[in-house]
Amino acid sequence: MNITGIYATPGYSGFFFDDQRAIKQGAEHDGFTYEGEPVTNGFDEIRQAGESIIVDVELEDGTVARGDCAAVQYSGAGGRDPLFKAEEYAPVIEGPVADELEGRDATDFLDNAELLEEMEVDGDRLHTAIRYGVSQALLGAAAEAENTTKTDVMADALGTEPATEPVPVFGQSGDDRYTNTEKMFIKGVPVLPHALINSVEKIGENGETLLEYVEWLVERSQELGPEDYDPRFHIDVYGMIGEIFGAPYDRDEVVDYFAALEEAAAPYPIQIEGPMDVGNREDQIAAMVELREGLDDAGVDVDIVADEWCNTFEDVQAFVDAGAADLVQVKTPDLGGIHRSGQAVRYCEGTDTRAYLGGTCNETETSARACAHVALATNAAQVLAKPGMGFDEGYMIVENEMRRTIARRARNQPQQTDEVTADD
C-alpha cells in the first residue's frame, strides 16, 4: 500500500524549552519562568513554550498514521540540534520530505526511515526532530498497511524478539520531587524519581541535600509502596557532582560521596545520571571512565548513566565501546529516526552497558506511544514515562500502550491446543 500524502501541522509539546546554560549559570525563578536573558542561540526567553509538528502520513485507502516531531527540553545544549521552531520546519516536511516519500510502499518501513535519515536539504541533514516525527508516522503507516502492531514492525526491522511483559518504566518527578515521587510509590513505579537535581541548591554545597533526599526515598518508599516493592532509584544530577567536587573523579573524596549515596539508598540499587558535564564527548567519556574505574576499585555499587554528549547513534557507540557507563540514555528525539533509537538499544546487547530508552518531558503523547513500541521490540532495560512533568499522565500513556500491545499480540498468537492426533 503506497503513501499518498504527508502533511505537517504546528502544535504544542508536553512541556517547555529551557535554556540549560542560562539555568546552570544561576538564572533565578520568576514564578514558573526565569529571570534574565537567554544565552543559548535561538532562545528568545530562558523558558519558552515547547513546540511540535503533527505529521500525518496518508495511505491510498484513506488511512492516516500519525507521528509528532519534538525536541528535548534542553535543546541546543550538550551538542544537540538547535531550538526546534515548528513554523520554520513544517514547510520542509510538506515540501522536500513529502516529495521523497510520496508514492513509496508503506510496508517498507526500514527503507523509508533510512531514506529520511540520510536526506539533505540545501546541503544539511534534516533536524533531528523532523526525522523523529516523520519516522514515527512511517512506523504507524507500516503497521496499518500490514494490520499488525508497531512493535512487530519495529521488531522485524531490527531482527528482535519482542518483550512479553512491560519494560520497567522510569518516572520523572520534575521539581515537585516529593509529591510526585509519593505518587510513584503508591503506583509501584519500578524506576524513579529522576528528581531534577540541576543546581547547587538542590544537591547541597557538599552533596548533603541529595543524600538527605535519598534517605527520604528509602523511608517513604517503604511506607507507601505496595507489598514486595523493590524500586530502583535513578537520580539525574545534570553534572552537579562534577560542579561541586571537580576532577579527578577517581579520587577518594568523590568515591566516598558515591559510597555515601549507596549507603543512603540501601537496600535498593541507585544509579546516577550525568554525574559531570565537561563540555565535549571525548572528555566526557574519559571522565566517566575515570569515575567508573574509581568506583569499581573501591567496590562502590552505584551505576553511572550517560546523558550529556551521548546524543546520536555514533555517540552511543562511543560511550558503549569505551565502557563509560553502566547505562546509556538513548535520548530518542536526539537520535533522529525512531529506528535509530532501536538500533542504539540493540548496540548495547552483549556488552556491560544497559540501554535506557529515554527522551524528554517535552515530547507528545504520540511520540511517547511510539517509543513504548521501541521499548517492547528491543526489551530495553527501562523506558521513560513521558511527556510532561506531572508524572501520572506520562506513566499512564507509556505503561498502558505497552500493556495494550502485549494483550493484542497475545490474542493474535496461534492458539495452542491439547487435541490428540490420530498418530498419538
Task: Describe the structure in your own words.
- The chain is an alpha/beta fold and 424 residues long.
- The protein contains 15 helices and 15 strands.
- The chain folds into 2 domains: 2-158, Enolase-like, domain 1 (2-Layer Sandwich), CATH 3.30.390; 169-410, Enolase-like C-terminal domain (TIM Barrel, Alpha-Beta Barrel), CATH 3.20.20.120.
- The chain has helices spanning 20-24, 86-101, 109-118, 128-146, 150-158, 179-187, 200-203, 208-224, 240-245, 252-265, 281-298, 313-322, 338-347, 365-378, 392-412, and strands spanning 3-18, 29-30, 33-34, 47-59, 64-69, 120-121, 124-125, 169-170, 191-194, 232-236, 270-273, 303-306, 327-330, 354-357, 382-384.
- The strands form 4 sheets. An 8-stranded parallel beta sheet has the order 8-15-14-13-12-11-10-9. Strands 1-4-5 form a 3-stranded antiparallel beta sheet.
- Helix 10 packs across helix 11 (281-298).
- The protein starts with a strand and ends in a 12-residue tail after the last helix.
- The model is unreliable at 416-424 (pLDDT under 50).
- The record marks 194 as: Transition state stabilizer.
What fraction of the residues are assigned to beta strands by DSSP?
A: 15-25%
CATH architecture of the largest domain: Alpha-Beta Barrel
Morphology call: globular
Strand order of the largest sheet: 8-15-14-13-12-11-10-9
What is the count of β-strands?
Answer: 15
Tally of separate domains: 2
Distance between the termini: 45 Å
